[in-house]
Amino acid sequence: MNHFGIIKYEILCRIETKSEYWLIDFEEHNELPSGYDFSEYESKGFMESKLIQDFPIRGKGVYLRIKTRRWRHKETHKIIKRNFSFIADNSKFTQELSDFLKGTN
Fold first, then answer.
1. Which of 12, 22, 85, 104 matches a 20 to 30 Å C-alpha distance to 69?
2. Which residues contact 66 (CB under 8 A, 6 or more apart)?
3. pLDDT of 1-46, one tens digit each?
């Protein structure tokens, strides 16, 4: 899933524009990830939000603040969450921006 696939799972909540950057807030829909039975899990709010940087727009930095939900199994209390693979491992960049920056050395 590229980061434009975020719209499938997230709701655009707010766009804040400053002279030097754009901050775009997303909040995950209250929908259980596929493969899990809704009758066995309950929504337990959100994980701590992640702030990641994406490609600049018109010379301004772009930051995506993403709030992902967590669900708890009603019997085992195991927590599950959706995996957003568009965030580069061990970074605060989208995968596409990270790949681009690696290529520029």
1. 22
2. 6, 10, 26, 28, 49, 50, 51, 52, 84
3. 444 456 677 888 899 999 999 998 989 888 898 899 999 999 999 9
Q: Over the stretch 60-87, which tens digit does the pLDDT of each residue have? A: 988 889 888 999 999 999 999 887 665 5
Question: DSSP letter string over 43-104?
Answer: EEEEPPPEEEEEEEETTEEEEEEEE-EEEEETTT--EE----TTBPTTSSBBHHHHHHHHHH
**In sequence order, which residues have a C-beta less than 8 Å from that of residue 17 and are 6 or more positions away?**
23, 60
Please enumerate, as own/partner, the contacts of 85-93 that have beta carbons within 8 Å and a separation of 24 or more: 85/1, 86/1, 86/2, 86/3, 86/5, 86/6, 87/50, 87/52, 92/50, 92/51, 92/52, 92/53, 93/52, 93/53, 93/54
Look up tokens 């199994």; give the residue.
Answer: 73
